[in-house]
Design goal:
The protein has three domains: 62 residues, Uridine Diphospho-n-acetylenolpyruvylglucosamine Reductase, domain 2; 113 residues, Uridine Diphospho-n-acetylenolpyruvylglucosamine Reductase, domain 3; 104 residues, Uridine Diphospho-n-acetylenolpyruvylglucosamine Reductase, domain 1 (Alpha-Beta Complex). It is built from eight helices and 20 strands. The two termini are 24 Å apart. Bound molecules: uridine-diphosphate-2(N-acetylglucosaminyl) butyric acid.
């Protein structure tokens, strides 16, 4: 185990925020976990750093998950169960699956971050969520110094949510995830933009690969590349409101888009609310709201985490004032 001191976290978070970590360790050997557990300092787990806002120097040990490997756990005529180490890059797993014609995660192409973040956040895009393919999650449970495996149900998945963000917050280090992928997939092209893109691409026969390429094209046209402009994807969750609230909103703004949640609730796009408050394309110093997607806050160069936090607070306030809707941050704030 190589414990480093006073390391800048700038290369390890897609917002590109420059704060130091008191201690930093790259975990590429699962056997080092016991040794790290014995350190007295507080532990912080960093995956791809693509869903995090660093607002101050981090005291304690920042662990960068570098556990790698994809193995076939079992298969039958319809499905294959892949056991994937948590430090694998998520998009590499998507490429692996589509190149083998395996279906289930093609709509989640190009989501930044690691495999370990997929259950944590229950990542989702274009009508699909990671929970639909996650069979189980194995993690190191700090308190008991042991590995535990939770079934899909035990992970208590919700919209961008799981037990790892709640009861097990800071208590579990995800080491591997088993995904159940399909050899005879049925595809989800319900999201309008995908259908449009497939038509533009001239696709006649659907495949996991064609859908992933369509998604990659949509994402690159709308979302900023963190290599060029620092960002963490959607900064806020899409808020869920009651149908009664929605009816009221609709009476004022008849163009407000919505997605049904159940018989009582609907989700409205936070991006739409933020744009209506005039924030889209806003810039102050190096902090801003992306010009093509109002849900994405950006760091143009040297923004501080606090500047981005303050901008997000102003946005929350104005959406509350204009629509009486409380936005909730999706990113993890350290
Ligand atoms: N819209 C606006 N202004 C904008 C952008 C969008 O008014 O600047 C409206 C449009 O009406 C559009 C609707 O919002 O029809 C939905 O927009 P979009 O399809 O871009 O999706 P989103 O709801 O803004 C969510 C996820 C994204 C995911 C896309 C596609 C959340 C918090 N975000 O965004 O996930 O890629 O759907 O499925 O649920 C992420 O989590 O980091 C992320 C990028």
């Amino acid at each position: 185990m190589h414990l480093q001191q006073n390391i800048s976290l700038k290369p390890y978070n897609t917002f590109g925020i420059d704060v130091p970590a008191e201690y930093f360790v790259e975990l590429d050997d699962i056997n080092d976990l016991a040794e790290i557990t014995a350190l007295p300092e507080k532990k912080h787990v960093l995956g791809g750093g693509s869903n995090i806002l660093l607002t101050h120097p981090v005291t304690g040990v920042v662990m960068h998950n570098k556990l790698k490997g994809i193995t076939v756990e079992r298969e039958n005529k319809d499905h294959i169960w892949l056991n994937v180490q948590a430090g694998e890059i998520w998009h590499d797993l998507v490429l692996y699956a589509i190149n083998k014609g395996l279906g289930g995660i093609e709509n989640l192409a190009l989501i930044p971050g690691t495999v370990g973040a997929s259950p944590m956040q229950n990542i989702g895009a274009y009508g699909v969520e990671a929970k639909e393919t996650i069979e189980s999650v194995t993690f190191w449970y700090w308190k008991e110094k042991t590995f535990l495996t939770y079934s899909n149900r035990e992970c208590a998945f919700g919209y961008r949510d799981s037990i790892f963000k709640r009861q097990l917050k800071d208590k579990a280090f995800i080491t591997s995830v088993v995904y159940k992928l399909s050899k005879k997939p049925t595809y989800n092209t319900s999201y309008g933009a995908i259908q449009e893109e497939l038509e533009n691409m001239g696709v006649v026969e659907l495949s996991a690969k064609a859908i992933a390429y369509a998604v990659m094209h949509i994402r690159t046209s709308k979302l900023p590349d963190p290599k060029q402009i620092g960002n963490a994807g959607s900064f806020f969750k899409n808020p869920t409101i009651t149908k009664a609230q929605f009816a009221q909103l609709r009476s004022l703004y008849d163009a407000v888009p919505s997605f049904p949640v159940n018989d009582l609730l609907v989700k409205v796009p936070a991006a739409w609310l933020i744009e209506r408050c005039g924030w889209k394309g806003y810039r102050k110093g190096d902090t801003g709201v992306h010009a093509k997607q109002a849900l994405v806050l950006v760091n143009y160069a040297h923004a501080k985490g606090k500047d981005i936090w303050n901008l997000s607070s102003e946005i929350v306030k104005s959406v509350k004032e204009k629509f009486n809707i409380e936005l909730e941050r999706e990113v993890q704030v350290w």
